[in-house]
UniProtKB/TrEMBL annotation:
<dbReference type="InterPro" id="IPR031437">
    <property type="entry name" value="Ig_TMEM132_4th"/>
</dbReference>
<feature type="domain" description="Transmembrane protein TMEM132 cohesin-like">
    <location>
        <begin position="18"/>
        <end position="161"/>
    </location>
</feature>
<protein>
    <submittedName>
        <fullName>Uncharacterized protein</fullName>
    </submittedName>
</protein>
<dbReference type="Pfam" id="PF23039">
    <property type="entry name" value="TMEM132_3rd"/>
</dbReference>
<dbReference type="InterPro" id="IPR055421">
    <property type="entry name" value="TMEM132_3rd"/>
</dbReference>
<dbReference type="Pfam" id="PF16070">
    <property type="entry name" value="Ig_TMEM132_4th"/>
</dbReference>
<feature type="domain" description="Transmembrane protein family 132 fourth">
    <location>
        <begin position="164"/>
        <end position="261"/>
    </location>
</feature>
<dbReference type="InterPro" id="IPR026307">
    <property type="entry name" value="TMEM132"/>
</dbReference>
Length: 287
């Protein structure tokens, strides 16, 4: 058997789509979009763009309350080395020294980025609906002292025993008579959470909401009803009203029927009679 060459293997990026936060033209941070369960370990990646010629840099990771640093390692050990700085800048700031140890292989076509290192983090339990934790990232270039922007990434957390949210309306159809009468037509809405134990909780006062098309239908500031007030310009089937509770979201599909203007009114009896009780003054010359 004759040796004809060698093949270098490098670690592939995770299968799931990652959120991207760019630090500058050289570096980008890739983080899982979430939601992440409490006490779970998550891995964030720092990657270089294709044309980057950087061979060493310092990475500072600033952890906010509720996030713990577990460790960091190069994504491709034959390309980069990573060491943690012995200097202490407080338990909330982790300083990592990164140096290229081999020639780059170029960006992978499907991502456009080449992973340099991965940082493992752990998030703590949350007693309330603080639905995310923040981690800040900044790169310094040794020798020049140049710094990138300090970019923040959010770790979205899955609340315990919460499977999703459901918006509920008394009816999913509204006839927009407000364009004729000027009187608001409203439909009450409640938003509930459904837990993994099938428990249902009303969270209407805690959600955020918006209408996908306010020319068709609107939603109240407190998210407790949808309405039309006569300022709409059209009707539509399955117009979405979106509700968000923490990292969870759902939509309510409504149908709004709009009168076609001008109205044509047909009456079966063309003879007009005075309406009892009405007194309309008529000028003497018109009698």
């Amino acid at each position: 058997m004759r040796r004809i060459g060698s093949v270098r293997l490098h670690q592939t990026s995770p299968g799931q789509q990652l959120d991207q936060v760019r630090l500058d033209s050289n570096f980008v941070v890739l983080v899982p979009p979430g939601p992440i369960r409490q006490r779970a370990t998550i891995t964030a990646f720092v990657a270089t763009s294709g044309p980057s010629q950087v061979d060493r840099f310092t990475l500072r990771v600033t952890l906010k309350k509720g996030v713990a640093f577990l460790g960091a390692r190069p994504s491709a050990p034959f390309l980069w080395t990573v060491s943690q700085d012995e200097r202490t800048e407080g338990q909330r700031v982790i300083t990592l020294q990164c140096r290229r140890s081999g020639p780059g292989l170029g960006p992978r076509p499907e991502t456009g980025f080449q992973n340099v290192l991965q940082v493992d983090l752990e998030v703590a339990d949350l007693p309330d609906l603080a639905n995310s934790r923040t981690v800040s990232w900044q790169v310094e270039y040794p020798g020049t002292g140049a710094l990138t922007v300090e970019a923040e990434t959010k770790i979205h957390l899955a609340q315990r025993n919460m499977g999703g949210i459901v918006p509920l309306a008394m009816d999913t159809e509204i006839l927009n008579t407000a364009v004729l009468t000027g009187r608001t037509v409203a439909m009450p809405v409640k938003v509930v959470t459904v837990g993994s134990d099938s428990a249902v909780t009303d969270v209407t006062e805690s959600v955020m909401c918006h209408s996908a098309d306010e020319d068709v239908i609107k939603v109240s500031d407190r998210c407790d009803y949808v309405f039309v007030n006569g300022k709409e310009t059209k009707g539509r089937m399955r117009v979405a009203v979106n509700f968000t509770y923490g990292h969870l979201s759902a939509q309510l599909d409504m149908t709004v029927w709009m009168p076609r203007l001008p109205l044509q009114v047909e009456v079966s009896d063309p003879e007009l009679s005075q309406i009892k009780g009405w007194r309309v003054p008529v000028p003497a010359g018109n009698q």
